[in-house]
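**User:** My hope is that you can spare some time for a protein that puzzles me. As I understand it, each token names a local backbone shape. I would be glad if you read both lines and explained how they fit together. The protein I mean follows directly.
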Amino acid sequence: MGDRRGPYIGFTAGASRQAVMFDTHYATEVRETSGLVPVVGGLGAGKSVLIGLVTYEAVRRGIPSVILDPSGPLSRLTELPELREHSEHLDLTTAASGTLNPFEVVAPPVRQAFSDDKAFAEAEVLAAQDRKLLAMDVIRMLLPASVDAMPSTSLVISDAVRATRGTAETSLWHVVQLLEQHQDPHARVVANYLRDMAELPLARLFFPSTEQTSARRLGARLTVLTMPGLSLPPRSVPRDHWSTTEQLSVPLLHLASWYAARAVYGRTMQSRKLVALDETHFLGEWSAGRALFTRLGRDSRKWNTCVLAASQNPSDVLGMDVANFMSAAFVGRIEDEDNARDGLRMLRVPTGVGYERVLASLSQQRGDESSREFVMRDVDGNVDRVRIDLSANPGLLDVLNTTARPAADDDGLVA
């Protein structure tokens, strides 16, 4: 198991016990394949522990890394003494107005990254298309479900966004103005809803102030993007029953994911990079999210990037048509039998012959972060049960431990 040249992450927990090494760039540099690595598992499966460990080792090796962790526990990595001088924690909820302007979060192509003017021009066209697609999806996310469902809504939004030509200097305010000038009366209805949403505190991230704010360059060795207090809607609740906060959280997550991707396309192709995205299942429900995920999977080899994508269900990743881009995969504890079958498909293991019970038996000791288990498929196609091992680094283990612990009183006694 493993690539035998990367940092130690754990040991096999099957019939034999062998060290497992995982090099984030073995796939792209040696095997010349995609760098997309899904990390899936139910609540408490240990996804944050694994992502934190892999990212920690990457940063220690000098690889620029960006983590999008909406809930925020992985931001504690930036406080470790060995990483503190090279890290930055960016709370997107307190960032400057317009930080997540959909026309700016898509990174403009860098001329030096392309061999000729034709390839560079094609990249500029693709970036403009990405901006328009993202802007259209974000606008629809901000509208009530009943308004979004109207056929004329998509038409007027498409007309307004197309008129912007997808330039990086555009903002949602330009789209609102174009909607107000549209000949269809329904366009003004959409514009009025957008103006109402722009008055909400978090919406200032989408709507720049009068002074345009350029997207921030992610230049630190480790950047952790968080959105504390973000309330993502339960998957079982229909969209028309979402609260206003939940309605805002979905475009926030999409735009933050594109913002994190700037760490890839804002650097040279050959340099090593790592991007870790959490809550990726929300990306698959909108075309802009699927486009980002597909692009990262497709471009990861060419841009020498390891992409760690965390989600609770394997079907969330498989549903985004990136199965051909997965170089390795980690599947944690999954108790639901249907989801377990999807996990086995991700591992390329036969289904219906009993392996589903193996996924349900992983990490039996709940609350013990030091013994989280995954079934891993490495880049060479080997599959085995792996126990993540942080016993040699108790400081890192303490930082990554997200299990709630009982509070102690003033005398140090546990309540």
Notes: The radius of gyration is 22 Å. Residues 117-142 form the longest helix (26 residues). The CA atoms of residues 279 and 311 lie 5 Å apart. The longest strand covers residues 305-311.
